[in-house]
Amino acid sequence: MDLTVRAIESWIVDVPTARPHKLSNTQIACQSYVIVRVTLACGETGYGEAATLGGPRWSESSVESIKANIDVYLAPAVLGIRATDFELASLLMASAAQRNFAAKAAVESALFDAAGRALGLPASLFLGGQVRNAMEVIWALASGDADQEIEEARAKLAAREHRTFKVKIGFREPREDISRLRRILDAIGGEARVIVDINQGWSEATALRFLPELAEMGIALIEQPCSALNMEAMARLAGRSNVPLMVDEAAFTGQDVIRAGTLAAGSVLSLKLVKSGGLIELKRAAGIAAAFGFELYGGCLLESGIGTAAHLAVFSSLPRLEWGTEHFGPRILVEDLIRGGIVYRDFQIHCPEGPGLGIEVNEDTLSRLARKT
Ligand code: MUC
Ligand code: MG
Hints:
2 domains; globular; binds magnesium ion
């Protein structure tokens, strides 16, 4: 069977969300992705996805820059190798472009999908095999309207889909955030766990002032309170906080993880393909983090079913994933990009079964939502 990569195509796809989603530094009502399709000499294809959140606001990547760098630099570097040459693909892409982690992860995910489909093997098998086929899944509350968020959380609890909720704060004054959180905790605190993501929105002084109150309220985890550029501030805060801090935007590469661990800038690490640049690199980052004693959290960037399946392929193979995952993306989109959808049941997300990423991309939906160039 000829697994040579013969073609790599990409599309920008814009998918509306069911409600606005606010973070401290951006707000979206539509998710934009770059979808990558790899075609092999044997005729098999595979898909990958690069997610963004509010343009180049969560990171420096935008769908426009991701597509351009895939089409002009990354795809040509990978054409002609075998789909199973994952490490080689990573080296070739690293020599073709600095960083561009979301773009690289989309290409590598497509290689895993194509190789798995051609060989009839699940992608997780290329990563050491599954140690779990389902994991606890967190839902994000991010409309900024406590009444709506309480209603949304109650619906997710009643449907037995989610019982840990990540509240996005940092886009209002801290005092307003605190009162919104108190209302949410009063409403669901008895039956749900609540964590917060500040998305770099607070100064160290503000965090010093308000982290104790978040702890007293019973917030279980505090994500990236300060600037990703100020790892030392995170370390000082982590040293004083009795609620674990999670490192997100501050740690993309393995070297970032080593720095976060050396400085003790937190005790939980959010793992994401848009930060690691590929499934194998994500596993490496997880191994480094675990060696420093970080607990692991399966992060997301509101991926569709395509990117979610890619994350689940690697998350399912991690020896430990203490915090489960937050891949709620497929359920906040007005429509997903795959047929059948990802299964959310008994407060867990269930890994798709089947070769490659285990999903069937809906090519009709893709072409309907593809941005017309
Ligand atoms: C982030 O910073 O965690 C993940 C969930 C969410 O609502 O935002 C993303 C990015
Ligand atoms: Mg975050």
